[in-house]
Automatic annotation (TrEMBL):
It is an enzyme of class 2 (transferase). One of its GO terms (biological process) is amino sugar metabolic process. It catalyses: 1,6-anhydro-N-acetyl-beta-muramate + ATP + H2O = N-acetyl-D-muramate 6-phosphate + ADP + H(+). Pfam families: AnmK. Its EC number is 2.7.1.170. ATP binds at G3, T4, S5, V6, D7, G8, I9, D10. Catalyzes the specific phosphorylation of 1,6-anhydro-N-acetylmuramic acid (anhMurNAc) with the simultaneous cleavage of the 1,6-anhydro ring, generating MurNAc-6-P. Is required for the utilization of anhMurNAc either imported from the medium or derived from its own cell wall murein, and thus plays a role in cell wall recycling. Keywords: ATP-binding, Carbohydrate metabolism, Kinase, Nucleotide-binding, Transferase. This is Anhydro-N-acetylmuramic acid kinase. One of its GO terms (molecular function) is phosphotransferase activity, alcohol group as acceptor. Residues 87-108 are annotated as: Disordered. The gene is anmK.
Amino acid sequence: MSGTSVDGIDCALLRAAEDKLLLEATLQYPMPGPMREAVAALSHSGDGEIERLGVLDRHLGQLFADAANALLESAGVPAAAVTAIGSHGQTVRHRPPSGGRSRSDSFSLQIGDPNSIAEITGITTVADFRRRDIASGGEGAPLAPAFHVAAFSEPGVSRAVVNIGGIANVSLLRGTELVAGFDCGPGNTLMDHWTHRHRGETYDAGGRWAASGECQPALLQRLLAHPYLDLRGPRSTGKEDFNLDWLDGVMADFPGTAPEDVQATLAQFTADAIARSLRDSDLQVSELYICGGGAHNDNLRARIGDALPWVRVADTEELGIAADWVEAATFAWLAMCSLAGLSGNAPVVTGAAGPRVLGAIYPGARAIPTRS
Ligand SMILES: Nc1ncnc2c1ncn2[C@@H]1O[C@H](COP(=O)(O)OP(=O)(O)OP(=O)(O)O)[C@@H](O)[C@H]1O
Ligand SMILES: CC(=O)N[C@H]1[C@@H]2OC[C@@H](O2)[C@@H](O)[C@@H]1O[C@H](C)C(=O)O
């Protein structure tokens, strides 16, 4: 899995045991700078797009294969012992129906050639998880809520699971029922970009820079007026909606604001968008489990806790999967569903016409019977 932060490739090795998935090994594999830049460049229209897309698709596929091989080597597990790789790919464009597109014009594009992954690793690879959901009228995202309910629900307990990656998404669980799931808005993406611009670092470690500033109420209100936050029903978003160009447009009305105060305000904006998702729901949850890189941002966590004082905030690690590996585990689980012919989407979340088997299967070398 490589997410919207493009901060590296999250690799997780899972074993299916009875009704549980056990996390056996993990590895974060770096993405070279030029490739990160190529991903960023492809996230908006530009010259030579098709050529660049074709080449980056191949390069990412090869990099994902190297990452999978490195994980297996570090875990001492032979490729022959692995049933399948689930590869999310790298999202380069997400244009869902909730963004105002007609259903027939909606699309979501993930790249990282699965043929190359199957070829290099020899392991059957499942990929392209979003497009069947889109084809059936859905958002194609978020897909994690179906996994959250499978991995983190508990009879009789109402809880929320929030993934704070580049974008944040939430799952609301009433016991073992998935009541709702959607992208709540920005995760770390705005804070990351602002930090990079003003401090040259890729993220605000622990949220310490945000903690040194003061939230600016007028700026916060303007940020909270982003139309995405007023959408209801199935909804998903991306860097298409929350990016530096949009922020710069807002900041034009707030000249002279100290950069650390902007960072504090962005942290509050992110926390409020998450808190609002829980507050607006008919389901009153008593527990909130955080996953994704934002789990390491103490300042952001404190702001979320302050906005929801009746909710106990904890990490998904308590429920068996550490915060950094939930997304990668999601796509291992989705690959398992695909191979078993089971649906992977949650229509209540994506708005798809019904349950669908997600993903396409690219058989590994040893899975190919010889023609007689
Ligand atoms: N120690 C830390 N302190 C603060 N923030 C951190 C820390 N470690 C990671 N992060 C944040 O987590 C981000 C990466 O999170 P993650 O890997 O979950 O995102 P992603 O999977 O790329 O995004 P998405 O879920 O939107 O696809 C980093 O860009 C950074 O903002
Ligand atoms: C199109 C796309 O890649 N969306 C990501 C992104 O990152 C978080 C949020 O936006 C979520 O909708 C999704 O990822 C997770 C894995 C999901 O589908 O649940």
